[in-house]
Request: fold
Amino acid sequence: MSIIVKFFVAPDDTSAGMAVQTGPGWAFESLSFGNFDPEEAVVEWECLLTGGSFEELIAAGEPRIVAGQDDDGCVVFAISPRLSTALADAEHSRLSDVAVSWSRLRAEDGEVIDAEIADAIVGDLAALVSNARRQNQSVYCWVA
Reply:
């Protein structure tokens, strides 16, 4: 698997969608990761943080695609308001627990994500979401 994942802050869907071809670049505050499926991850994180069901979130259209194709091309999707709130409001220990649980979920599917790396991803994303909320902006994800 070779996926480029960039979570980034943008004022609205239109601005975020303009990043679909080249990524968020320097125009937006962002975090870069790789080699995991972020669309699946955000749904799993939301389930772990809020107790929702994976199937219910998928049926509700999460994650919400803002721009691009969800097949072979680049895509930009929005982090749901519910996940944003849960990430911003969670204590560090809760985020660490979610990261460990996510790492175990991925291992059950044969995908190895080290718990320490998972902790960094979830913790850094929570910090990005908190910064975005203070600026009255949202967090999106660009995947290539």
